[in-house]
Amino acid sequence: MKTKTLITLLILSLPITLLAQTYGWMNLSDRINSEIGVALLEDVQFIGQEGWIASWNYSGGAGEIFHTTDGGRTFEIQTTMCATRTIWMLSNTVGYCAGVSGIVLKTIDGGDTWNYHGTTGANSIMDICFPPGSDTGFYCGTNGANGRITEDGVIIDTVYTPYDLESLSFAFPDEGYCCGEWGIYHYLDGAWCRDQYYRHEYHMGIHFQEGTTLGWIACDDGNIDHTTDGYDWYMQPSPDSNDISLISVCFIDTSQGWTAGWGGLILHTTNGGQDWERVADGLTDNSFTTIFAVSSTEVYAVGVNGTFLKYGDMTGIDDNKQLPARVSLHQNYPNPFNVSTSIRFELNRQSQITLDIYNVLGSKITTITNGIYPAGNHAVSFDASPYASGIYFYKLDTGDYTETKKMLLIK
């Protein structure tokens, strides 16, 4: 009897052992390698393990969409005719993207080719959203730009606000919401209306859970606005005491959600936002633009300087990762620059590094970063707003390797 009991216990425990996985947040920014400059990742969408990241660079011009079929382990670059800031895939083959200059592009082959679909006349399109089950979508953008995207082209609707519109969300096929600078707007009965009661803050990202009147908004003041009836909004305080701006919010159901913002801040809730906790601390200081959840075990966050974080199974994530062959320091980009520039460097092993800035007289004026970095590709930003125009030098020191390069600040 004891033997049979022991065998039974072993059999019952076997599936748990075999299925055991290690989940956590990972900084996979080294997988993003732009061909046209330092990538500003603006939007991300995944369908299963296949994903697309809308991107542009700080110098303007053409854009890039980073496409993956293996959950962000590897990417290919899909080049677009304009800088892309938002993307929405209806399926693994059909989708739309838009961005700077208000141009909308469409793909019918998963992004292998992106073709001109229409123009909105806006300076920049900030978001695209298709209601559940609909092949007609909505867009919003700067200076109150809003309209619809159909299979045949773009329809420009009447501007109902002079302020920038940042984000869209539709919980029902014929009912949705838009938020932005000093406003939350409600789409009902074929028209946008002002029937929302909210705090007067800059609203950055909005999410409504499909089929419900439960909604959340990431706010510029660092808090989260929440509604249970689709009309009245109240504040859910952030645990961050520095009031760091929140930019994007997403939920997978009525309980579990995430929000992300400046300075690498990501918050997570499991009770509908009654309580939020910080996660992924220490992985990056770069600001996020969008967070997107496929499930409770697969979440993606993208941001400035090619920042790409993933929450998921960490088992074997580095199997196909090729480490740099040596330590190297890249030329800053852009250069010359006005106020802000990005500095990239590569490490062939984990190293304690310092990155210092010197003026033309050789005096150190600041240290950008000082700490332990893992092997791989890295990028940090230099904010030169306190300094005068002129020539500066930046120096990378790993203890057994140093390299210095010159850059030009023009204000």
Describe the overall structure.
The protein has 411 residues and is mainly β. Strands 1-28-27-26 form a four-stranded antiparallel beta sheet, with no helix packed on it. Strands 2-3-4-5 form a four-stranded antiparallel beta sheet, with no helix packed on it. Strand 16 and strand 17 form a beta hairpin. The termini are far apart.
Query: What is the radius of gyration?
Result: 23 Å
Mean pLDDT: 89
* Envelope shape: globular
Q: Determine the oligomeric state from the structure.
A: single chain
Care to count the β-strands?
A: 35
> Poorly predicted ranges (pLDDT <50, ≥5 residues)?
1-19
Straight-line distance between termini: 84 Å
Strand content: over 45%
Q: Could you say which structural class the secondary elements and strand pairing correspond to?
A: mainly beta
Major beta-sheet overview: 4 strands, antiparallel
Can you count the helices? 1
Strand order of the largest sheet: 1-28-27-26
- Helix content percent band: under 10%
